[in-house]
Amino acid sequence: MISGRYNYFEHQADMGIEGRGSTLKEAFSQAARALFNLMLEIDRVRPLEEISIHCRAHDQSELLVEWLNGLLAQADLEEMALGRFQVDRLESDELEGRAWGEPFDARRHHPKTEVKAATYAMLFVGQEDGEQVARCVVDL
Amino acid sequence: MDLNLLQKQQDYQWIIPQAGEMKVPGQIFASRELVEEMDHKVYEQVSNVACLPGIQRYSIAMPDAHWGYGFPIGGVAAFDPQEGGVVSVGGVGFDVNCGVRTLKTGLVWEDVKPHLRSLIDTLFAIVPAGMGSRGEISLSGSQVEDVLCKGSRWIVSRGYGIKEDLELTEDGGMVPGADPSAVSDLALKRERRQVGTLGSGNHYLEIQRVAEVYDDQVAGAFGLALDDVVVTIHCGSRALGHQVGTDYLKLLAEASRIYGIPIRERELVCAPIDSSEGRRYFGAVICAINYAFANRQVITHLVRQGFDQVLPRADLHLLYDVGHNTCKVEHHHIDGRTRELYVHRKGATRAFGPSRENLPDVYRGVGQPVIVGGTMGTCSYILVGTDYGEQVAYASVCHGAGRRMSRKKAKKTWRGERLARELENKGIYIRGHSLAGLAEEAPGAYKDVSAVIEAIHQARLAAKVVRLEPKGCIKG
User: Fold this and answer.
1) Which of B251, B278, B367, B390 has the most beta carbons within 10 angstroms of its beta carbon?
2) Kind and range of the H or E element at A17?
3) What domains can be seen in chain B, in order of their start residue?
4) According to the model, what pLDDT value does residue A13 have?
């Protein structure tokens, strides 16, 4: 069971997402939940199939954007709904993670809003109020 | 926005004085009230864009400007490659060539009214929309390349349209210079079966009625009269466009570091136009621009099929097709010289004036039709480009009303089902794929489009021609 939590924050045109946890890996995992919960009901997604994400970037904040956009792209390509997320390895410039879900089914997963991409707007990865935080704005 | 930060240049024209690292001043076209309503981030973002290398004259904002990604939504900036000018992801965005296309039907409202529900229901069934939707057209690898290079032109050559459609699309539905090798495999794979799909979010297909005519002469030149029924399609380059934006956000972040370009906001990542990274990005953007044209062309074909089923008397002809998230190479006269500039329009629409050479024959001497859509349930406008707009704003106008309320707040304030019923009580029939999506797009969540259009008109960037009221709407 993953610990930590996710939030949304106001952004005029679109939406801010935020993952929080005791580790950055948790925060990244929670941010992914926040992202996908914008698009569908993540609690209605069964973790039947696994996909993996491996990305590199200049720093950890860019890695957050790569992680989230990588998940969006894979889910789109495989026509999957994703509901569970886990970052297994997080270095300063490299991330390995996995996600679980099942084939997308509108009647089951209750689609909400399409997300075009995670962006660099309001991008922050690091410690805040004693927690590890991963946050950015997504373009809807 | 605090008006004390600005200098009034003239009515509807405000200057952000050049200061600090700004290379040019900022310029906002808006009424006093609209400027006051703008959030402070617009001031910051207009100023940040003004710091980019090679920017010419002014960093411009439209009357509907609001907080965006690097550029404000409603932002316009032109760059000269010979002065180290840049191409920036912030100036194009993640939905490249999101735009609007309006079709005339040859029918008036009395003809369509009895069939409206049937028409909307038929189009709802025929035009794929909503999250995860796929279309009927499956392109092979080389065909995808054809679409990226030739846009609408290729689509029409396959029988999904008529030649006239191309003449009446910006750039003839095909911008030259596409570089498919600059589009990632991932973007190409994500394209699968999306050409001819509406997408979701604020994308829509509307059946509208000409409710008011402001300029009889130009309306006549456009083939529009009071009570005419038109169809407007609003959508973009789908997942391919999103992936191009995403891919180059990372690549140009690296390029900005390599070329030492000071970026005031991360979304402004860019590269010199005259660099391999800049050329590749621009080549990829053109691919996505052409893809969006192709998308709207296929949807046009589907709309014609829908009308054939319900109202075979209809004869659908294009008025025009314009994009509002693009970067294009254009000739503009500055300081007595003609210069070739890269013009970014982020949430802004090109509006060529009557003197432009590259207008369709039927619009030469009149000006380009400009389509500005309000959100569902509110009106839209057709305007015409002016020579004054060419001089002061690189022939640019706004793209819509601009949001004034976050989606979170909108969803708390309105419920999708209630909204649909309220709009139906006003005589507007809506079919949507997502109820939450409906609430986010509620009229109250947007600025007053009429006030924005009035500002455009008073600022002489374009002139009002007709106002359209929605009668039926399909939302993704």
Assistant:
1) B367
2) strand A15-21
3) 3-404+446-475 (3.90.1860.10)
4) 67
